[in-house]
Amino acid sequence: MTEQTPSTPPFRDPHLPFAKRIDDLLQRLTLDEKLSFLHQFTPAVERLGVAAWRTGQEALHGVAWMGPATVFPQAVGLGATWNTDLVRRVGEAVSKEVRAMRAHDDRVGLNVWSPTVNLLRHPLWGRNEEGYSEDPRLTSAIATAYTRGLRGDHPTYWRTAPVLKHWLAHNNETDRATSSSSVRPRVLHEYDLRAFRETVEAGAVAGVMPAYNLVNGRPNHVSPYLREHLRAWTDEELLVCSDAGAPSNLVDHEHYFDTHEEATAAALIAGVDSFTDHGTDSSQIVDRARKAYGQGLLTEADIDTAVRRQLSVRFRLGEFDPHYDPHAGTGEFDTPAHRALAREAAEQAIVLLRNDGLLPLAPDTRIAVVGPLADECKLDWYSGTLIHRSTPLEGLYERFGADRVEFAEGVDRVRLKTSAGTFLHVPEAPAAADGVRGAEGALDPALLAGRTDLPPLTTDATGTELALVDWGEGVLTLRAPDGRYLSVADDGYVRASADQPGGWIVQETFRLEPHEHGHLLRHVGTGRHVCVAADGVKVADGDPHVWELVIAERGEEAVRRVAERADAVLVFAGNDPHINGRETEDRATLRLPAQQERLLRAARSVNPRTALALVSAYPYAVDTTALPAVLWTAHGGQAAGTALARVLSGDVSPAGRLPQTWYADDADLPGLLDYDVIGGRQTYLYFEGTPLFPFGHGLSYASFSCGDLTARADGGSLHVTFTVTNTGDMTADEVPQLYTRAVEPSVTRPRRELLAHERVTLTPGEKREISFEVPLSAFEFWDVARGGPRLEPGSYDILVGASSEDVRLRTTLRLDGEPGAPRPVLRRGLEAADFDEQSGVAIADRTKTAGDAVTPQEGRTAELVYRNCDFGDGVTRVVATVAGEGVVELSLNGGAPVAVLPLETATATPYDYTSLGADVAVAGVHDVHLRLRGPLRLAHVGFSG
């Protein structure tokens, strides 16, 4: 290291503040160089010695897409631990592996795109596995812990730079690039923004990634919320990275702008700093930005702002201070500590849902292990490649001994017969044909192609017996005796070539479609049918073959054989994370696949000591009344099998807790696109039915008691203390949970709302005092009448429980606050989106840059209610600001209309607003009801006297 010399530019001087160094570097860059920084893949500026850089490294539960790495439980599994210290340590391990891998492969980036803080509002969302919880406070607690681990604890230099995904209100894969989430102000502020806000305010976040969808009619990539909310929560420069292809979507799919130059400029001005589009080819984005600048849509100051934010992250990562970067020499990769942590995380993620004494299993138990997930260690789209692998079967072999464990996968053993009498045949693979997809790493694993080095399938007189697994909704996989799945490569031939289903478009799934006296076999990935050609079996558009399904053995038969010989049966059911519920694909139902339900019934029919172990990325609706034990774990990563065996044997007491409600039936669910958690009574916060298992639920092999509750409010905080005692006979973890409920709220408030939690380990007989300090702002709600948060004075229940429904202690406190007041409609009028209640309403964009309007949902009449509107001594005129075409009707207190405002001639565009007026005579305080008919947008209603 040397002191700065006159030839050393200030941006290279580690003794200067980052802001001054960034200023210096920014003024040295030419406009063309700055434009090149706007793409994900930023080229080097060799004349200044500035290296090439890229945003984006997937690291949701381990380093992903770059080859072998430690694989931790899925994010929803980390959420189920309810353990912030553990999750911080996982983030720390992941970030150290990022650094270690980058030392050998500069494709590995330090700007990590994780965690995902989208709330698990709807359990049919295909990406349920990526989030932490349906609750914003639990989500933010887990996300904050993970980002702190990713960031590291050095005061100046960050180990990695975490980016939160996906801003905002994003819970559907169906039409995800074109659908709009209708988010009323209360839901926005009390629910969707909260998880992001509390994580950003904690100070370990480098940026966010906007989601593909629109919110209130406006694409997230041009959302004013980025400026109004996100950047107001912190003094740090936050880097906003677009999602892949989303900038082009603004024109190509959403048709929100006419030209890509307009779209690029609008996104940049709204706050997008780095454009992820067209892969590694930056030329199109740079050209669009250059033309937008030339057309006057952008200024150089706009470009400078985005480049400054990128440079801020790069300086914090130590790029310009290699001698001072404390993380530069990090080499921790696949260490014994990381392997132990992966097992610890997998153990803590296991949730015991039901137990009538069957678990834990005694050491001498003869166990039947059955089901399609019993000998699997499944990965998901955001996993690394396994270095170590433990399936439940392997874990149970190791723990109980292979002589005490008998296995039946429960697949149907089938052959496929052609109309010519021959059978589908899998040729023997060459000796050197082994290989694991993804082991080589890829910046975009969607580009990993299927294998063509193996021979295509043929037909012969005897054929090959295949293992058929039906994953539900008619989607099945076929597996050859050597364990390889039937797959289709780019050349269209069918081969037994895949070690697992996978890829952006899965090529290993099929459908059997009844046809005449047999079936057509449709390949899902291509949509084509399987047929037999002279040079092998392939998929083709025409002349499909009719196949007869010859069943050698039903899976239920094998399951019954081993189940009736066992002391206990463990049925491992669940999902493959690449099939029926994943990125790009939502689930259709909460039910288990029918084949798995049949296996469970078969086991139970011959052995009542049958436990169900669900290994899945999301909840199921299962009839558990006849089952003595049920447990759930997300896909647990490399140590999943060992962890399950240790819990099933009682070496570890389970203490995971459900991070989301498990509903009993599909009928309990709102529509997938209904984002109004308040009006739709969604999540444990508002759901009024009886769940299968409630939020926060999870059992233990130990027992616990709670007592000595005290609660007081002072100094702007609620202070709660109580004791927890382990009354059982083994060391175990307990997760005390603190909830509140407004006793007599003036508006709809949550039935229960999580305030705090802690996971603690207690030895038998140990008593521990638990203390929580909660800011009184946690009791606020968004008051639409005033357009801001308000703490309503009144009584609040303070509840201590083992789940949201299992309350053990309670007290009631009266909190001071600000009384509500009627809406001052003479002064402010009514912003249309600030309703109290609605039906048939969608919220739309008032303009393309800011503001909300309301409009009827397609084919419906919109009904809106605004409570307690104060008209003072009287008004004589109402004026509605509208666009489109239709009718606005105004009534009071649900009575007959007092004003009808027709817009008979359609405005030129949905953004050309006009004023409609009518005479009225209203005084005093009333509830205002509005009814909207037709394709009309209402922005505001004003009153005058």
Task: Summarize the structure in words.
Helix content is 20%, strand content 28%. The protein contains 18 helices and 50 strands. With 945 residues, the protein is α+β, with helices and mostly antiparallel strands. A 6-stranded mixed beta sheet has the order 10-27-26-25-11-12, sandwiched between helices. Strands 39, 41, 44, 46, 47 and 49 form a 6-stranded mixed beta sheet that branches. The protein has a 4-stranded parallel beta sheet with strand order 3-4-6-9. Strand 3, helix 5 and strand 4 form a beta-alpha-beta unit. The model has no long low-confidence stretch (mean pLDDT 96).
Key features?
single chain, six-stranded mixed sheet, globular, about 950 residues, 18 helices, alpha+beta, about 30% strand
Query: Judging from the principal axes of the Cα atoms, what is the shape?
Result: globular
The percent of residues in helical segments reads 10-25%
Q: What structural class results from the helix and strand content?
A: alpha+beta
List the strand order in the largest sheet: 10-27-26-25-11-12
Strand content: 25-35%
Biggest sheet overview:
6 strands, mixed
Give the number of helices.
Answer: 18
Terminal CA distance reads 75 Å
Low-confidence stretches: none
Q: Work out the number of β strands.
A: 50
Q: Radius of gyration in whole Å, from Cα?
A: 30 Å
Mean pLDDT equals 96
